[in-house]
Amino acid sequence: MPSLPRLRAESQLLGAERATDTAAVVARLGALQAQDLSATTLAVRARSTGLTADEVDLEGEGFVRTWLMRGTLHVVAEADAGWMLGLLGPVNRAKGARRRAQLGLDDALCERAVEALPSVLADGPLGRAEVVSGLASLGVTLGPEGQAAPHLLGYAASFGVISLGPELARGKASYRLLEASSALSRDEALAELARRYLRGHQPAEPADFAAWSGLSARDAKAAFASLEPPEPVTEPQPGSVRMVGHFDPYLLGYADKTAAVPAEFVARVRTGGGFVTPTVLVDGSAVATWRLSGAALSVRPFTPLSDAVRAGIQSEVDDITRFLGTPLTLSVSAP
Question: Please, what is the end-to-end C-alpha distance for the chain in angstroms?
Answer without folding.
Answer: 29
